[in-house]
Amino acid sequence: MASGRNGASGCHNAKFAHWRASVELIEQKFNELAMQVAFHPQADNLIVARNDHRHSIRLSVGTRKTCPSSNGLVVERGAALFFAQGGRGSVAIELYPFVSELRRRREHSILWREVGDPAEITEAMLDRAINDFFCYARVSSASRRDVAPDRLRIAYLLAKSWVNRKVRVFLAVRGYAAR
Question: For the chain, what are the domain ranges?
Answer without folding.
Answer: 2-173
